[in-house]
């Protein structure tokens, strides 16, 4: 393997040393995403390990080496080691004895090939030892990784019948690593078994969708999800894909990384009430839901021809985050349209926006002679409205003069 710094990373080495001290040399290998990404020359996120040691032995081996062991999923053979402040998922080699569409009853084994056979895709069934030698028990994984082919280990239809989450994982890996024509057998099986997705808890669906949408370019994968009927099973309200496609364009035009949550929002229907319903159905967190509902709001109106001053008022009223989301979603309707240059200018201005604060407070209003009470709030509201209209002047003298005039007006109004 070319770039194998992750293999010699001291935190990983400490885990390998701990397990080999108990199980002997070669009892543990790197597996899954880290090996796949190393082969593909992609950055490595987290490190998963596979071992012949059974879970209890893993726990005691880690403890003996002074590492923390978290029993993440003992039934399925998974223990998380904490080393150098990071988590390493260690799973005992296993085969699935019985499956029910999502959960499996497992039996531990010491056979790497058996372990590979229960993994989802050939490019995810790659192992590497601590010297960086890659093992490919299915015989197909290395070639698949190099070519960006997402192919089920074994028969696609049977593997999905065992665990329907694999449908979403298929499209997630397709979005992140797929190149060339997608595997026809896999697509057909996803389509045939799309109904089974109804049994997945919303939390799992949301997690997979957000991971999928975090790929730099998920457009083709989402198009295939729509074509196979998978998208409508997990997002029944998803409209056409043009806003998602447009948003991906906008991100690219602005040189920004993927914004998975906003991309999800671009697949939702457009009114805040509908967004709230979708957020509830998919069990978004409060913060995620609030962001997407705010992004769907319409007032104050953002248009490509709005003036800079009007944009600044909108930024002040909405907050920069909400305004940015709305600008991007609006621009996403026609990323290369006649207004593209205007939208780009507005987004750039919004990015540079520094929040403004009114230089006077309630105490200043009282000091200026207003009786404490509702009039203070009213005077502040009027003052802020004037200040926004005047494009946020900073001098306190001008604000004081205006405040005096406002207070006179309120008095006269009595
Ligand atoms: P990522 O970079 O997203 O972490 P990954 O391939 O490491 O990708 P994980 O979800 O961390 O994905 O899973 C680790 C490995 O466990 C996978 O590579 C795969 O071999 C196996 N695996 C995970 N989930 C399943 C599943 N539902 N069915 C079969 N194998 C699975
Ligand atoms: Mg992983």
From TrEMBL:
Native organism is Phenylobacterium parvum
Q: Which UniProt keywords apply?
A: Magnesium, Metal-binding, Nucleotide-binding, Nucleotidyltransferase, RNA-binding, Transferase, tRNA processing
tRNA nucleotidyltransferase/poly(A) polymerase RNA and SrmB- binding domain segment(s): 183-237
Q: Which GO annotations describe the biological process of this protein?
A: tRNA processing
- Its name, as the record gives it, is CCA tRNA nucleotidyltransferase
Give the superkingdom in one word: Bacteria
* Record keyword Magnesium present: yes
Give the family from UniProt: Belongs to the tRNA nucleotidyltransferase/poly(A) polymerase family.
Pfam families from the UniProt entry: PolyA_pol (PF01743), PolyA_pol_RNAbd (PF12627)
The Poly A polymerase head domain is annotated at 29-150
For molecular function, the Gene Ontology terms on record are: metal ion binding; nucleotide binding; nucleotidyltransferase activity; tRNA binding
Query: Which cofactors are required for activity?
Result: Mg(2+)
């Amino acid at each position: 393997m070319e770039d194998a710094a992750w293999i010699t990373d001291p935190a990983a080495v400490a885990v390998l040393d701990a397990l080999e001290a108990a199980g002997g040399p070669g009892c543990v290998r790197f597996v899954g995403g880290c090996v796949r990404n190393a082969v593909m020359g992609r950055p490595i996120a987290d490190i998963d390990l596979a071992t012949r040691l059974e879970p209890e032995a893993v726990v005691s081996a880690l403890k003996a080496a002074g590492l923390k062991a978290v029993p993440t999923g003992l039934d399925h053979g998974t223990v998380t080691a904490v080393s150098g402040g990071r988590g390493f998922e260690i799973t005992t080699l296993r085969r699935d004895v019985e499956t029910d569409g999502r959960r499996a009853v497992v039996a531990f084994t010491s056979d790497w090939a058996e372990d590979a056979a229960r993994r989802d895709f050939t490019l995810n069934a790659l192992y590497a030892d601590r010297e960086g030698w890659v093992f490919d028990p299915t015989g197909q994984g290395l070639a698949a990784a190099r070519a960006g082919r997402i192919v089920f280990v074994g028969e696609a239809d049977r593997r999905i019948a065992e665990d329907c989450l694999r449908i979403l994982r298929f499209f997630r890996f397709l979005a992140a690593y797929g190149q060339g024509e997608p595997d026809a057998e896999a697509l057909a099986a996803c389509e045939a078994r799309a109904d089974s997705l109804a049994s997945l808890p919303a939390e799992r669906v949301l997690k997979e969708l957000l991971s999928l949408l975090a790929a730099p370019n998920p457009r083709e994968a989402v198009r295939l999800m729509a074509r196979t009927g998978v998208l409508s099973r997990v997002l029944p309200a998803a409209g056409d894909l043009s806003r998602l496609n447009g948003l991906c364009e906008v991100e690219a035009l602005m040189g920004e990384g993927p914004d998975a949550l906003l991309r999800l929002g671009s697949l939702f229907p457009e009114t805040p009430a509908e967004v709230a319903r979708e957020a509830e159905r998919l069990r978004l967190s409060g913060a995620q839901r609030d962001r997407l509902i705010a992004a769907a709001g319409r007032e104050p109106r953002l248009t490509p021809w709005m003036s800079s001053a009007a944009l600044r008022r909108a930024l002040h009223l909405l907050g920069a985050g909400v305004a940015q989301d709305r600008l991007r979603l609006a621009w996403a309707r026609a990323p290369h349209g006649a207004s593209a240059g205007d939208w780009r200018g507005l987004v750039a201005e919004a990015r540079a926006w520094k929040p403004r604060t009114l230089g006077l407070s309630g105490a200043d209003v009282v000091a200026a002679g207003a009786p404490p009470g509702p009039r203070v709030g009213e005077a502040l509201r009027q003052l802020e409205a004037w200040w926004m209209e005047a494009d946020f002047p900073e001098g306190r003298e001008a604000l004081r003069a205006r405040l005096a005039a406002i207070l006179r007006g309120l008095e006269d109004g009595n």
